[in-house]
Amino acid sequence: MSPAIAMPLFRPDFRPDIELLSPARDADIGIEAINHGADAVYIGGPAFGARASAGNSVGDIERLVKHAHRFGSRIFVTLNTILRDDELAPAREMVRQVYEAGADALIVQDMGLLELDLPPIDLHASTQTDIRTPEKARFLQDAGFSQIVLARELTLPQIQAVAAQVDRATLEFFVHGALCVAYSGQCFVSHAQTGRSANRGDCSQACRLPYTVTDPQGRVIAHEQHVLSMKDNNQSANLAALVDAGIRSFKIEGRYKDMGYVKNITAHYRKLLDELFEARPELHASSAGRATFTFTPDPDRNFNRGSTDYFVNGRQEDIGAFDTPKHAGLPVGWVTKIGADYVDMKLYEGVDPLNNNDALTFNTLQKDLVGMPIDTAQLLNEGKRLWRVVPKEPLSTYPGLRPDVVISRNRDMGWVRLLEKKSADRRIGVWLRLDDTPQGLALTLTDETGVTARAEVDLPKKEAARDAAKGEAALREHLGKLGATIFTAHETVLATRKPWFVPPGVLNALRREAVEQLEAARLAAHVRLPRQPEVQPPTPYPEDTLTYLANVYNAKARDFYARHGVKVIGAAYESHEALGEASLMITKHCVRFSMSLCPKQAKGVTGVQGTVRAEPLTIQNGDEVLTLKFDCKPCEMHVVGRMKKNVLNQAVREEKASLAAGVPMQFYRARPSTTPPRPCTPP
């Protein structure tokens, strides 16, 4: 036997080639992500993850780890919020627990954690650390991060520039899912308006609200438009280009998403990456096994706001979901008749049948998206594709519904039921070899990563099969029965002197023992990457002055930056020291550009050049008013506002309550105070 095997996957110095990184709200979803081809899964721990309601017990993480390691896949635990000083000790204890549970890496935002005595767990720099420049990426690598998540806003040339400066850390990039309009870690609108901090995993999603936009003269430019709401990220067409630019970990957004989403989107990118590997043999997955599916992956069938590849190929005009942040679904047909309590429809050619409990949508003449859940769906004429649906609500609740209106479907119960079943099978290829031993037989299994296991059985008396051909076929048949395992046979070599007659029960027991030994050997061979050592002496931070934008919320984070040469260190916005007007959001998205009001767009246009200026705009939702200011040199927009008085008052109440309870809240203040901050009205 001479299988073509590269060096084993699990060597300690191994860095993944191409990694598909999937989200998991819970362990069960994480297990299905692995089954559908994920090379790694990121999941929230018991606390301090950037999704407030997506925590998981240590026991569940351990269960997920054991399943992932069977395939050489890895589990990353998110600890990507900023922490108060009084939260550092519980966070350190949580890190110890998830490390002992077998987690492979920790995704971190708060630099204070690097000043703690943590177990030797691998560290990844979260997208919340706002990595936009080669200098920032190089610094984080030198500080001890082995994997860094680049900002979603980077273009291919900018990614290449980062890759040229980073020689030890893996570059990770979001390829699918919801887009935060702000640079990650640079949005404080939620905290300023509600006290719910996006940097602490509790964003109120003000960016998805409708706003009225006015110019300095008070003229309305847009009325009730979702001008800060982005379409969803989809880099399906750019995977090869991203590989060439230096990306090695392809990340799917969605730790709040359901099982069906994770199955479908993981399978979609698994297929695309496998096709890329076939075309480019020098590339390979970072884990073992091949996933097959019982369905055809289709990202358009999950919740989405339309798709964009954002800034990867440069600034695009159509990146916003300005009409609605909701999921319209896929067009299925149009209305032919409206009855007293029913709607008749004709479906487009090739559309899947309607189902009871499907959800339909349509747009009114005012472009408002209206949802219309189905109670019952009845086929009227199969040849003509005519259907009758009875909505769950009276037709009077759908005033915009009319004949000829196009109907879409954003919940297909047939698709939902398909993904509720077992929908993937992931198998690791093995070579089997049967040999004689002085006492009987030995079965050796070697998997596609080079891990080997051997089992033996005693046979007091060997008898040759009466029919050699049938005997050989029987041996191959019983040895190759791997259907209930995670393995599939590539080749079975019979290296015995003769095709012996062996009772099926003996062969089955020998095979089962060999499989058990191989599974154990694979788990034993899995090596967690060690913590990358920090460069000594410490690399200076690229800047010597930090404002609230650096999110320094505890004294240990302050010590980290001071140790790296920063001289002036502002406190996090959550420390409530930036009480005047401040940039509550910094974003690459430009409302002026999206509305064709950008001075650069007007450049060279006769009669327009020079008349369009990047003057501030105002956006308003209810009582909330924010100012948009435009920094044209880096081509960025700042959303400017003040912290609300009730947020400050609530902070004071919470601090007093913690003092009264004997567990005072402690956090970094650039202007130290021995008493809780007093509420004030911004000037």
TrEMBL record:
Q: Which residues cross the membrane?
A: none
Q: Which GO terms describe its biological process?
A: proteolysis
Q: Name one Pfam family in it.
A: Peptidase_U32
Per the record, the coiled-coil ranges are none
PROSITE patterns under this entry? PEPTIDASE_U32
| Domain named Peptidase U32 collagenase: residues | 409-523
Q: Which SUPFAM superfamilies match?
A: Ribulose-phoshate binding barrel
- EC numbers listed for it are 3.4.-.-
Q: What is a GO molecular function of this protein?
A: peptidase activity
Under InterPro entries, the record lists:
Pept_U32_collagenase, Peptidase_U32, RibuloseP-bd_barrel, RNA/ubiquinone_mod_enzymes
* Top-level class of the enzyme under EC nomenclature: hydrolase
Question: Looking at the keywords, is Hydrolase present?
Answer: yes
Source organism superkingdom: Bacteria
> What keywords does the record list, in alphabetical order?
Hydrolase, Protease
Query: What is the name attached to this protein's record?
Result: Putative protease
What species does this protein belong to? Sphaerotilus montanus
* Organism lineage string: Bacteria, Pseudomonadati, Pseudomonadota, Betaproteobacteria, Burkholderiales
